[in-house]
Specification:
It contains eight helices and no strands. It is mostly helical. The radius of gyration is 16 Å and the shape is globular.
Length: about 180
């Protein structure tokens, strides 16, 4: 249950402040029907979380507990550093019509973001890939959907910089704990 909650919260925050929400907002402003948009979001988040959970399942038995903690710290560090970069528009999925354009845009947004690495890091840390995958998939969907309606100037940039700073600090502290330096 710890893996589910941690991955749900972290993925929702990272995707809400990152480019997943921007892709969702760009596609909804581009005249795409809401039902197709949500279907593409669910498909991309589910496949994203499944692949990341399987990667964590494969990696976890090969690592010691300290190495698992360091892997999670690296995931936190990359996610926190990625939040400092301004997200680009992801609605440029070519000229493919309808559902294929939506699915391509979400796969670009989800696989180009930090959520898969966070899901894999959490599944490695807790050795519970299925709960991490379920929580990460739900968190990615919630973050994309909820973050799309929030103003980018007023909320997203300050929050993404603050969240990135907190995640980098957490990565540093997790690294120190993994190296047994305190």
């Amino acid at each position: 249950m710890d893996a589910l909650l941690l991955s749900l919260i972290l993925c929702a925050l990272v995707e809400g402040a990152g480019k997943g929400a921007r892709v969702y907002r760009d596609l909804s402003a581009g005249g795409v029907r809401e039902s197709r948009l949500i279907a593409g979001l669910i498909l991309a988040c589910a496949v994203n979380a499944l692949i990341a959970a399987l990667a964590g399942y494969w990696i976890a038995p090969m690592l010691t507990p300290e190495a698992r903690m360091l892997f999670f710290a690296a995931a936190l560090g990359f996610a926190g550093g990625g939040l400092f970069l301004a997200p680009r528009s992801g609605a440029r999925a070519g000229r493919a019509p309808g559902f294929s354009r939506i699915t391509a845009a979400f796969f670009v947004a989800c696989f180009g973001g930090s959520a898969p690495l966070l899901i894999a890091g959490i599944s490695v840390l807790f050795a519970d890939p299925w709960m991490a995958g379920i929580g990460g998939g739900i968190g990615c969907g919630i973050g994309c959907w909820a973050g799309s309606s929030i103003s980018e100037v007023v909320w997203r940039r300050p929050v993404s910089i603050g969240l990135g700073s907190v995640m980098l600090l957490s990565a540093f502290l997790t690294t120190m704990a993994g190296l047994r330096l305190f």
